[in-house]
Recover the amino acids of this structure.
C-alpha cells in the first residue's frame, strides 16, 4: 500500500517535469497525454485507496523519508491516510483530471500549452502532498507550493499587466496568511516538541492552562493564540475577510485554473487544515468564535458583491468567496464534518460552474461581460444545462448537492452555543437569498433574454458567425461534473450521518453542547448529531428542507432574479437610483483594494524610501561613515601643521618626548 | 592518499595555481588552466567531505608546523563540521566564477582568474586556521584579491567602493588584532583551541566581544555597518559579486562561531540582546530598503544583508532559550544552513543579473520589462531563484529561516514575529523585481534584441538550481555534517568562563 500512496503524488509530478522540461521535444499532444496519464494514475490509485480506507477501514500513518533530524526534533516527509485525506485525494484528482481534459479544448491555440499542463500537474502534486501530509512541515510545504503554482498560473499570460499584478498580489497576500501559519507552527513545536500530527494531537491537552506572554503583564492562552495564528493561514489561503482581496483578481488567470485552483481545491486548503487541526481548535472557544464571525461576515459581504459584478468569472469568484465563508463559519460552529462535506460538494458544482463559464467565454470569443451576452440557451445547450445544474446546486435547491451540505451548515450554526452564532446565523441565512439572486441574475443574463452579443462581436472580428457549442473535450468534463453536482449530496448519509470522519476529526462535545452529560467521545457536532438522529433517509431530509427558511429564502432570491432579468428590470433601475451609495460601496468592493493600495503598498514604499534616505544615506553613510572619514581627514590636516619640515621643530619635539619618557621612568 | 596534507593542498593548490596562471598565462589557455585547478580543488574538497567523520566534534585532518617559535605561532590547520561545508561551498563557487568569466572578461583575463584562485586558497585557509595569527593574516589577506577584483575590473565608482570597503573592514580589523594579542598575553598561546579554554573576567570578555562583533559584523555585514556592501556589489564585476555574497559574507559569521561564542561566552550571553536587535533590524529595516532599490544589484545586496540577519539571529538566540539545548541546536543549525543556502541563492541571483548586464549593460530595473518573452529559459531559472530567495519550502532558502523562526518562537513570540515578517517583505521585494524585469510586454528595443542563455550559462544555473532544490528537499546531509560540532560548540558557548554561578552572571 505504501508504494501506492507514494505513486499518487509522484505520477502527476513526473508528468509535470516531463511537460515542463521537455515540452518542446514532446510537442503539444504528447505533453497533454503524459500529464493526463499522470493525473489518471493518481485518480485510479486514489479510488483504490478510498476503497481500502473508507471501505475496509484501513488507515495509514508513516514516514517516506527523514528530512532532517536536529537532536530531539525529527522532521519527516510522510503520509497520513484516513477518511478525510482519502476523500480530499478523490476530489483533487477527479477535478484535476476534468480540468486537464478541458484544457485541451480551452487552450487549444495558446503558445504556452505545454507550460500550462506542466503547471496544473505540478499543482496536483502539491495539493496531494498537502492533503496527504502527516505533519505540519509537509503541510506547509504543500501550502506554499500550491501558492507558487497559483502565482505561476494567475500570471500565465505574463504579458498582461493586470495578470502579473494580480499574481504578485495573490502571492503576497497569501504570504501574510502564511506568516501567521508559520508562527502557529512555531507555537506547536515550542509547546508540543514535535510537528507530527499524531504526536502533537496526543499531547494537545497539555496546552490547556499554558500561557504565552504577549506583553509584560499580559498573557494569552497558548491554545487560543496558536489556534488563531494557524487560522490566519487559513484566512489567507481560503480568502477570508480581510485577506480575501487576492481571489477576485486571480480571475486574470485562464478559466481552467480558476475552476481547479481558485474554486475547487486550493482555496479549500484552509478549510481542510482547520478540520485536520480540530483537536487544537476545540481547545479554544475564542478561536472558534473568531472563526465563525470571520466566516459569516465573508459569506454575506462577498455574496453581496456578486450582485454588482458584470464579468461572468467574477460573479462566480465572489460566489466562491461567499461559499468559503459558509465553510469557515461551519468550522467555527465545530461542525467540521458539515464543512468538509460542503467543501466536497462545492468542489464539484463550483468547478462545473467555472468550466461552464469558460465554455461561454470561448463561444463569445473571450468576451466576459454578461451584459453583452443573453439568449445563449439555444446555441449552447450542453453548457446551458450544465450551468443550470451548477446554479441549482449552488443555491441549495432541494435534491441537488449543495442543498444537503448548506442546510447542514446553517442548522449547525443555528444550534451552536458560541456567542458568535447569534451574529453568524442571520448572516448565513440572508446569504442564501443573496446567493440565489446573484446566481440566477447571471444565469438569466447569459442564457435567456435578448441576444445582446451580435453587435459586440461585430466590433471585434466583423464576422457574423453565431456562437456554437464547444468541442467534446470541453463538454465531456461538464457532463462528468454534472453527475456529482447532483448526487454527491446523497453521500450525506454515509459521510456525515455515518460518523465518517470519526477518526480524523475531533469535537469537544462537553464544551459545546447543551447537555454536558452527552456522550463526548463522538466526533460529531451537536447539530450534526441531532440531524443524524432524526435522519430518515435523503428523501425525508428533502421534505423537511422544503419547509425551512433557507429554501424559502433561496426561492425568493431566484424569483426576484427571474422577475427583474426576465420580465421587468425597472426594479433594478429603481434600486440603482435609490441605493446609489450602496451600489458605489459594492462597486468599489468596500474600498478594500483602495485601502490596501494606499496604506500598505504605498506606505511600504514610502517607508522604504524614507529609510534609504534618512537611515542609509544621511545617518549611516553621511554621519557615521563619511563623518569618520572627515574626522580622520580633519585630524590629518591638523597633524600636517606639525610637519613643518624644520629640523629644530622636530628636535624640540623629540627633546620634549625624551623628558616625558624619562620622568615616567623616574617617578612611576 | 591518507597521508597527503589535504588541508594544505586546499590552500596552496589554488594559490600556486593562481601564480601559475600569471606566469604561464601567455603560453597556454589560462581559462582552461584555472578551470582545471578549481576542479581539482573541488575534488579534493569532496575527498575531505567523504573522509570527514561527522560523528566526531574533534578537529580533524590536523596539520601543525612551527612558524614563529619565539611567539609560539604555528601553522596549525584543522577542520570540523563548521568548516567542511563552507570549504566545499567555496571550492564549488570558485569553479562557477571561473566559468562565468569565460566569454565575458576580456581585459587582463589571466590576472582576473589568478585573483579568484588566490582568493579561494586564502578563504579555505580562513576556514581551517586553528592559530589566531594565521587566522588573522588570512582573514586580512582575503581582502587583497577582492580589492583588486573590484578595483581593476569594477565599474565607474570602483575607487569609492573599494576605499569604503577598505576603511570599513580595516576599522574592524584593528580591534580584532588587539583582542587576539591580549588573549595571547593572558593565555600565552595563539592557539584558538587554547583561547577557547581560557578563563576570562567579564570586563575583558565584553571588550573582546565588542571588538569581535565590530570586526566580524562588518564582514557579515550587520546593520549598521553594512553600507559598504551595496556599493561594493554595484561596482564589482559579476564574479566579484558572486564571491562577495556567497563566500566573503560567510567568513564573518564563521568567525563568530569559531571565536566569539566559545572564547567569550559570558559577554556573548550578556550582549545577545544587542546582536538579536541588530539582526532583526537587518531583517525588517533592510527589507524595506531593498523594496525601493532601482539597481538590481543593490536590491539583491540588501536582500543578502536581510538574509544574513537570520544567521546572526540563529547564533545568538541560543542565549535566550533557558538552556534548552535541542532548540539551541536547531537555531545554530538554522544559521549554518542559511549560510550554505545563501551561498547558492545569492550566487545564482548575481549570476543572473550578470547575464542580463552582459547583454544590456545596465542594472537599472526600469530599463527592463518583459524579459520572459525573449529569454524563457533564463526566466524560468530566475523565477526559481527568486522563489528560493523568498524562502519557499522545497528550496534551500526555506530550511534555515524555518529553523531560526521555530527556535525564536521558543525564546520569545515577538522575536519570531519580527523574524517571520521576512515571509512578507522578502516576497514583496523579490516578486516586485520579478514582475518588473521578467514579466510584462517587451519594454523597449534593447529588450527585444535579447538572446536566451547560452549552454555555458545554462550549465552554471543548472548546477546552482540543483543544489538549491536538493538541499531544500533533503537538508539532512548538511545538518548531519554539523550536528556533532554544534553540540560541542554549545558546551563551550553555554558554559561560563568568568567563574560565576551561571552564564553571564560574573559578579
Amino acid at each position: 500500500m505504501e508504494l501506492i500512496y507514494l505513486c499518487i503524488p509522484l505520477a502527476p509530478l513526473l508528468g509535470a517535469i516531463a511537460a515542463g522540461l521537455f515540452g518542446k521535444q514532446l510537442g503539444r499532444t504528447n505533453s497533454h497525454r503524459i500529464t493526463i496519464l499522470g493525473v489518471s494514475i493518481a485518480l485510479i490509485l486514489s479510488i483504490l485507496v478510498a476503497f481500502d480506507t473508507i471501505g475496509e477501514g484501513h488507515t495509514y500513518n508513516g514516514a517516506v523519508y527523514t528530512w532532517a533530524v536536529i537532536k530531539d526534533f525529527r522532521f519527516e516527509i510522510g503520509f497520513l491516510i484516513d477518511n478525510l485525506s482519502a476523500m480530499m485525494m478523490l476530489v483533487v484528482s477527479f477535478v484535476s483530471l476534468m480540468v486537464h481534459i478541458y484544457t485541451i479544448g480551452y487552450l487549444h491555440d495558446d503558445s504556452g500549452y505545454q507550460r500550462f499542463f506542466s503547471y496544473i500537474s505540478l499543482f496536483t502534486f502539491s495539493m496531494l502532498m498537502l492533503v496527504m501530509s502527516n505533519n505540519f512541515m509537509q503541510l506547509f510545504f504543500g501550502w506554499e507550493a500550491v501558492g507558487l503554482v497559483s502565482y505561476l498560473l494567475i500570471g500565465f499570460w505574463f504579458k498582461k499587466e493586470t495578470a502579473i499584478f494580480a499574481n504578485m498580489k495573490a502571492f503576497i497576500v497569501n504570504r501574510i496568511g502564511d506568516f501567521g501559519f508559520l508562527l502557529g507552527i512555531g507555537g506547536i513545536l515550542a509547546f508540543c516538541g514535535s510537528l507530527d500530527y499524531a504526536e502533537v494531537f496526543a499531547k494537545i491537552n497539555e496546552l490547556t492552562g499554558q500561557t504565552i506572554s504577549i506583553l509584560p503583564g499580559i498573557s494569552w492562552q497558548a491554545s487560543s493564540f496558536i489556534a488563531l495564528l494557524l487560522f490566519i493561514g487559513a484566512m489567507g489561503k481560503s480568502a477570508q475577510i480581510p485577506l480575501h482581496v487576492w481571489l477576485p483578481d486571480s480571475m486574470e488567470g485562464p478559466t481552467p485554473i480558476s475552476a481547479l485552483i481558485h474554486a475547487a481545491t486550493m482555496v479549500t486548503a484552509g478549510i481542510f487544515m482547520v478540520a485536520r487541526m480540530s483537536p487544537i481548535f476545540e481547545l479554544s472557544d475564542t478561536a472558534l468564535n473568531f472563526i465563525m464571525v470571520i466566516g459569516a461576515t465573508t459569506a454575506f459581504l462577498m455574496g453581496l458583491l456578486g450582485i454588482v459584478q458584470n464579468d461572468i468569472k467574477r460573479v462566480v469568484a465572489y460566489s466562491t468567496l461567499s461559499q468559503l465563508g459558509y465553510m469557515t463559519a461551519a468550522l467555527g460552529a465545530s461542525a467540521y464534518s458539515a464543512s468538509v462535506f460542503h467543501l466536497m460538494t462545492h468542489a464539484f458544482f463550483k468547478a462545473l460552474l467555472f468550466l461552464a463559464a469558460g465554455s461561454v467565454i470561448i463561444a463569445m470569443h473571450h468576451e466576459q461581460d454578461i451584459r453583452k451576452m443573453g439568449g445563449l440557451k439555444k446555441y449552447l445547450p450542453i453548457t446551458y444545462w450544465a450551468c443550470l445544474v451548477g446554479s441549482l446546486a449552488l443555491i441549495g435547491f432541494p435534491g441537488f448537492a449543495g442543498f444537503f451540505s448548506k442546510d447542514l451548515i446553517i442548522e449547525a450554526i443555528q444550534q451552536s452555543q458560541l456567542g458568535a452564532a447569534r451574529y453568524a446565523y442571520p448572516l448565513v441565512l440572508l446569504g442564501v437569498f443573496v446567493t440565489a439572486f446573484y446566481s440566477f441574475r447571471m444565469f438569466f443574463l447569459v442564457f435567456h433574454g435578448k441576444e445582446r452579443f451580435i453587435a459586440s462581436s461585430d466590433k471585434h472580428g466583423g464576422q457574423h458567425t453565431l456562437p456554437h457549442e464547444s468541442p467534446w473535450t470541453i463538454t465531456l468534463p461538464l457532463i462528468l461534473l454534472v453527475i456529482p453536482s447532483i448526487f454527491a449530496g446523497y453521500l450525506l448519509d454515509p459521510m456525515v450521518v455515518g460518523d465518517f470522519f470519526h477518526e480524523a476529526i475531533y469535537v469537544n462535545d462537553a464544551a459545546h453542547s447543551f447537555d454536558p452529560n452527552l456522550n463526548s467521545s463522538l466526533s460529531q457536532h451537536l447539530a450534526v448529531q441531532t440531524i443524524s438522529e432524526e435522519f430518515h433517509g435523503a428523501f425525508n431530509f428533502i421534505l423537511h428542507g422544503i419547509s425551512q427558511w433557507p429554501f424559502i429564502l433561496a426561492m425568493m432570491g431566484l424569483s426576484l432574479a427571474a422577475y427583474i432579468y426576465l420580465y421587468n428590470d425597472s426594479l433594478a433601475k429603481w434600486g440603482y437610483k435609490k441605493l446609489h451609495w450602496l451600489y458605489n460601496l459594492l462597486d468599489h468592493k468596500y474600498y478594500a483594494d483602495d485601502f490596501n493600495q494606499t496604506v500598505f503598498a504605498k506606505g511600504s514604499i514610502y517607508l522604504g524610501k524614507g529609510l534609504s534616505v534618512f537611515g542609509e544615506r544621511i545617518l549611516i553613510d553621511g554621519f557615521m561613515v563619511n563623518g569618520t572619514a572627515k574626522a580622520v581627514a580633519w585630524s590629518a590636516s591638523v597633524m600636517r601643521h606639525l610637519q613643518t619640515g624644520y629640523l629644530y621643530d622636530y628636535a624640540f619635539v623629540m627633546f620634549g618626548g625624551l623628558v616625558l619618557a624619562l620622568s615616567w621612568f623616574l617617578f612611576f | 592518499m591518507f597521508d597527503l596534507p589535504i588541508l594544505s593542498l586546499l590552500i596552496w593548490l589554488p594559490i600556486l595555481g593562481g601564480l601559475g596562471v600569471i606566469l604561464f598565462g601567455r603560453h597556454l589557455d589560462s581559462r582552461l588552466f584555472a578551470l582545471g585547478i578549481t576542479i581539482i580543488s573541488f575534488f579534493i574538497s569532496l575527498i575531505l567531505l567523504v573522509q570527514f567523520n561527522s560523528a566526531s566534534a574533534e578537529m580533524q585532518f590536523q596539520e601543525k608546523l612551527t612558524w614563529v617559535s619565539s611567539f609560539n605561532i604555528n601553522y596549525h590547520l584543522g577542520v570540523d563540521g563548521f568548516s567542511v561545508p563552507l570549504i566545499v561551498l567555496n571550492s564549488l563557487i570558485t569553479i562557477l566564477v571561473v566559468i562565468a568569466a569565460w566569454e565575458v572578461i576580456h581585459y587582463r583575463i589571466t590576472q582576473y582568474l589568478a585573483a579568484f584562485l588566490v582568493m579561494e586558497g586564502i578563504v579555505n585557509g580562513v576556514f581551517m586556521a586553528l592559530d589566531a595569527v594565521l587566522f588573522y593574516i588570512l582573514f586580512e589577506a582575503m581582502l587583497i584579491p577582492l580589492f583588486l577584483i573590484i578595483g581593476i575590473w569594477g565599474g565607474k565608482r570602483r575607487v569609492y567602493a573599494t576605499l569604503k570597503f577598505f576603511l570599513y573592514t580595516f576599522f574592524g580589523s584593528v580591534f580584532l588584532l588587539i583582542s587576539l594579542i591580549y588573549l595571547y598575553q593572558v593565555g600565552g598561546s595563539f592557539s584558538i583551541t587554547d583561547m577557547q579554554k581560557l578563563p576570562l573576567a567579564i570586563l575583558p570578555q565584553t571588550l573582546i566581544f565588542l571588538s569581535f562583533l565590530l570586526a566580524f559584523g562588518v564582514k557579515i555585514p550587520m546593520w549598521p555597518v553594512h553600507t559598504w556592501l551595496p556599493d561594493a556589489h554595484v561596482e564589482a564585476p559579476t564574479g566579484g559579486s558572486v564571491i562577495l555574497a556567497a563566500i566573503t559574507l560567510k567568513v564573518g559569521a564563521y568567525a563568530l562561531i569559531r571565536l566569539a561564542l566559545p572564547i567569550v561566552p559570558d559577554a556573548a550571553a550578556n550582549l545577545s540582546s544587542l546582536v538579536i536587535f541588530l539582526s532583526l533590524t537587518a531583517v525588517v529595516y533592510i527589507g524595506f530598503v531593498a523594496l525601493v532599490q532601482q539597481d538590481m544589484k543593490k536590491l539583491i545586496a540588501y536582500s543578502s544583508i536581510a538574509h544574513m540577519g537570520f544567521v546572526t539571529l540563529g547564533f545568538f538566540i541560543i542565549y535566550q532559550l533557558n538552556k534548552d539545548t535541542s532548540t539551541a541546536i536547531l537555531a545554530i543549525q538554522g544559521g549554518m544552513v542559511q549560510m550554505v543556502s545563501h551561498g547558492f541563492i545569492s550566487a545564482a541571483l548575481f549570476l543572473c543579473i550578470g547575464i542580463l548586464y552582459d547583454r544590456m549593460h545596465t542594472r537599472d530595473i526600469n530599463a527592463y520589462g518583459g524579459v520572459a518573452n525573449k529569454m524563457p529559459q533564463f526566466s524560468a531559472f530566475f523565477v526559481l531563484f527568486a522563489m528560493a530567495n523568498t524562502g519557499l519550502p522545497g528550496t534551500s532558502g526555506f530550511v534555515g529561516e524555518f529553523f531560526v523562526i521555530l527556535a525564536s518562537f521558543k525564546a520569545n513570540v515577538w522575536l519570531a514575529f519580527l523574524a517571520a515578517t521576512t515571509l512578507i517583505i522578502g516576497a514583496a521585494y523579490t516578486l516586485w523585481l520579478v514582475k518588473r524585469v521578467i514579466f510584462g510586454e517587451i519594454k523597449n528595443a534593447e529588450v527585444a534584441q535579447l538572446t536566451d542563455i547560452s549552454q555555458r550559462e545554462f550549465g552554471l544555473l543548472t548546477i546552482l538550481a540543483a543544489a538549491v532544490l536538493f538541499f531544500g528537499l533533503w537538508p539532512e546531509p548538511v545538518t548531519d555534517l554539523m550536528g556533532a560540532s554544534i553540540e560541542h560548540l554549545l558546551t563551550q558557548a553555554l558554559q561560563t568562563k568568568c567563574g560565576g554561578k551561571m552564564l553571564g552572571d560574573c559578579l
Summary: The longest helix of chain A spans residues 592-642.
